[in-house]
Amino acid sequence: MDVRWEEAGWERLTGRAGRRRLPVWDCTVGLVVGDESVLLIDPGSCLREGAAVRAEAERLTGRSVTHIAFTHGHFDHVLGAAAFPGAEVFGAVGLAALLASGREELRGDAVRHGLAPEEAAEAVERLVLPGHQVSGEWTLELGGVQVLLANVGPGHTGHDLAVFVPGERETVFCGDLVEESGEPSAGPDAVPRQWPAALDRLLALGGEDALYVPGHGAVVTAGFVRAQRATLAARSGVS
User: Fold this and answer.
1) Domain count within the chain
2) Metallo-beta-lactamase domain location, by residue (predicted)?
3) CATH number at residue 86
């Protein structure tokens, strides 16, 4: 492992990709480093957290974050984006409209989960909407590495996006379609009967030997994803 990443509290997964587990909600932030561009996956829960992630990412890479991918629209995964001015933001098709019309709900959800009201209000006021909407798959050329953004949902929400990073071992950033630190969280915007199929798509794209990075918790294997799929299928009554 690169010592600089470890000292900064980041886990280096492959030569191109790493991640950090943020405090409080244990939300994963991913980083993919190309020769020309830098992709961040989920920018944190507020502007303060986003600014800290930005500083760490710039220190680790020596460059600014140029692209951001939202794995879904929950507050702990999107509200830090305004701390990255100029970055191109990607999300599943329909997410931009959902965020634009649901600002008050997003603010309320953040406060209910413990974010300070003033921080939630500021982050929602400066909310960044995805300028690029992924309806199927979208390949990002970062220089020396092509990253695949795949709209694999619905499941955890109606707008789930996964990020596939090739390398010596393929890395799959799953968002909250996969959770390791607790049971899969199914809120009112979840689509339980389609969630198992979303995990099938993750496994088909990642393969047996990939690293699967959950939205919360430790990195897992394909076997863990299959087991979580079985749990969700039994819970929702689908095969």
Assistant:
1) 1
2) 26-216
3) 3.60.15.10
State the pairing for strand pair 132-134/137-141. unpaired
Residues near 75 by beta carbon (within 8 Å), at least 6 away in sequence: 45, 106, 107, 109, 110, 113, 115, 120, 123
Residue-number span of the structural domain to which 214 is assigned: 3-236
DSSP alpha helix (H) spans, 151-221? 195-206
Structure tokens at 136: 């199927």
CA atoms within 13 A on the CB side of 117: 0
Indicate yes or no: pTM above 0.85: yes
**Per-position DSSP letters for 70-117, written without gaps between them:** -SS--HHHHTTGGGSTT-EEEEETTHHHHHHH-HHHHHHHHHHTT--H
Q: Which of 38, 115, 20 is nearest to 76 (CA)?
A: 115
Percentage of the chain modeled with pLDDT above 90: 92
Q: Alpha carbon of 165 to those of 18, 21, 46, 136, 174: distances in Å?
A: 11, 18, 26, 16, 11
- Category of 144 on φ-ψ map: left (φ > 0), alpha (ψ -120 to 50) or beta: left
What per-residue string of b and e applies to 189-228 under the rule 16 or more CB within 10 Å gives b?
Answer: bbbbebbbbbbebbbebbeeebbbbbbbbebbebebbeeb
For residue range 85-143, what is the model confidence (pLDDT) as tens digits?
A: 999 999 999 999 999 999 999 999 999 999 999 999 999 999 999 999 999 999 999 99
